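Q: I'm writing a short explainer about UvrABC system protein C for a general audience and would like to include a description of its predicted shape. Could you first generate the structure from this sequence?
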Amino acid sequence: MPQVPIEVQLRTLPQSPGVYQFYDVDDKILYVGKAKNLKKRVSSYFTKNHEYGKTRVLVKKIKLIKHIVVPTESDALLLENNLIKKYRPRYNVLLKDDKSYPWICIKNERFPRIFPTRKLIKDGSEYFGPYTSMKTVRILLDLIKGVYPLRTCNYDLSKEKIEADKYKVCLEYHLGNCNGPCEGFQSLEEYDEQIQDIRRIIKGDFKSSLNYFRSQMKTLASEMKFEEAQQVKEKIEVLENYQVRSTVVNPKINNVDVFSVISDEAYAYVNFLQLSHGSITRSHTLEIKKKLDETDADLLALSIIEIRQRFKSLSRELYLPFEVPVEAHLKVTVPKLGDKKKILELSERNAKFYRQERFKQSMIIDPDRHTNRIMAQMKKDLHLSEEPRHVECFDNSNIQGSNPVAACVVFKNGKPSKKEYRHYNIKTVEGPDDFASMEEVVFRRYKRLLAEDEPLPQLIVIDGGKGQLSSALKSLDILGLRGKIAIVGIAKRLEEIYFPEDPIPLYLDKKSESLKIIQQLRNEAHRFGITFHRNKRSKAAINSKLESIEGIGEKTAEELLKKFKSVKRIKEASIENLTETVGMSRAKKIYEAFH
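A: Of course. Here's the predicted structure. Afterward I'll give you a sentence or two in plain language.
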């Protein structure tokens, strides 16, 4: 596909949280930003009158918009930070420095200290985060310190130095904030048990801690200490809303390439996420036009080689949705659950969004490609021998057997061809008999097409289950069209697709485009038929009201309606006006009937 105009790119953006990247004509990154709703945020650049000249110049230079979809706004904030630090775009002023988001560190030492930090040092210490707010970190640490007395000094508390009485307890011990491990007043085993509890709190298991704070809040409130109780309540609220997990930044996942693939009849889409030092640093989706009947595994294996070469990836581990052959030195992981599975799902989500956007863009820029893809998909899904370029759908309409009618709607290349729609009054069937009505209308439709040497459809869709389908087949048999035109029935209850002489229906995916086209056909036929039926029933009711007057027949009723347009106007007309249309004798009868 050629370069997509900016207007089209804006129309097809997803309404999801994520990070957007603006590129110039030379494919050089200009700006990175985050958004709660990508479509609204990015579109605002092109619809607002910007106050700053820098922004106006930026907008003029934008030729390409890329984005990465993430689960939450917090993830978008973290990912934006990662990408700005990696690419240092010219138009990003904020976050260009070395500032990073805070982490909580449990130091790798005897009697570990716990403190906030913005730097990750590979010394065996544990890091939790990152957090988008230092306020959350402080409240979490306040909670921990309020429940567990921990040391804050940076002494080397080795066994030998403690036994040699090298240290003396400080003010923190006398204030009750520390249990004095420096003088051996607290054992290493007891301290490590506290650290285990703290790990659970940091990971989001607040049950015991929340119970502690709730009891503390009630105690303070009973003692009339309402201000302190309110402070504790605020901590509870923050902790209850606290989210520790981040998909886009996870220190447990380091230097990994993540690949996922989704495909249709004509194209495959392979998404690539690159994780470096626990953070997503790149996202790219490759579109591949299928030439043969390649499997997803074949396409994924080829894409892995091409993408890794293009971006010069040195990662030794791959996360994939299924096993594929790769270079011998690479480790392949197929995640089943946990953080690794989440990052693979994020890759799949970005591939799906990319595919949706390409569909929308192709509908606008290259409608033939979009049509060809849908036709190929319908041929495959419905097991047809040829693409259903011309489809016709039939529906019956009657209420308690009155005024039975039928409708035939025609779709060409997946779109309604309204000039070819047809209404049918049921002529040979008495009473409400849907099966016989369907048999009559299908026979009349294709007898006429054959007589006039008009082109026949590749597919007939019958609104109804096995009964209506069997009735339609009788007419095709009589006309000698059985087997020459594909025919299916769609039942309303579970949207089952019935085929001739097959008792087991086909259930298409609810999101399938083939099912959507068939549903659109069925709904259009129903709408077209019911409108005709209502108009006919309304006209019949009006005529019967006039014809119930003695001396007024069908012809007179039609003359009156042609002149006065409605029964209401006939009722309001004077004898003189009525006389002009139907004569004095009948005019008196009509006037007296209504008055």
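A: For your explainer, you could say: The mean pLDDT is 80.
Q: Perfect, that's easy to follow.
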